[in-house]
Design a protein that fits this description.
The chain is α/β, with parallel strands linked by helices and 133 residues long. The protein has a single domain, classed as Metalloproteases ("zincins"), catalytic domain (Collagenase (Catalytic Domain), 3-Layer(aba) Sandwich), CATH 3.40.390.30. The chain is built from five helices and four strands, in the order βαβαββααα. Strands 1-2-4-3 form a four-stranded mixed sheet, sandwiched between helices. Helix 4 crosses helix 5. The radius of gyration is 14 Å and the shape is globular.
Length: 133
């Protein structure tokens, strides 16, 4: 996994993210040749992406884009500003919220979704295996 910063320099739990990524890759049998780009960004940047790709003109917490390339599984964008706000609202640490968003994004890259209750239940069960909040 490669971590990039896009116009923001807030702290983040790098070692923990790399550790969880490795656990997900192994447990979910994802080829280690498949890379994931994690882009940590601002509300402004993720809002631009949300508007461009989903036609929703507001900031969101996480966006995932499957690439389908032989070497790249996809990209996960996390708004660190949104993570900070949500952590306070949920009563959890900032680091735990970033981890939660990352795990959520990883399962979107694997094709999981939450369009209906059944899909949401399956995805949340998978996520809980890797999130210890």
């Amino acid at each position: 996994m490669v971590i990039h910063h896009q116009y923001i320099t807030l702290p983040y739990p790098e070692e923990k993210l790399l550790e969880i990524a490795e656990k997900i890759y192994r447990a979910e049998k994802i080829s280690l040749r498949k890379k994931t780009n994690l882009i940590l960004c601002s509300d402004y940047y993720i809002r631009k992406l949300n508007r461009q790709y989903r036609d929703i003109d507001k900031a969101t917490d996480v966006l995932s884009f499957e690439i389908g390339d032989s070497d790249l599984m996809g990209e996960i964008y996390i708004s660190l500003e949104r993570a900070k706000v949500q952590a306070k609202r949920f009563g959890i640490t900032y680091d735990d919220e970033i981890i939660r968003l990352f795990v959520h994004g990883m399962f979107h890259l694997q094709g999981y979704d939450h369009q209906d209750d059944k899909e949401r239940e399956v995805m949340e069960r998978k996520e809980r295996k890797y999130i210890k909040l």
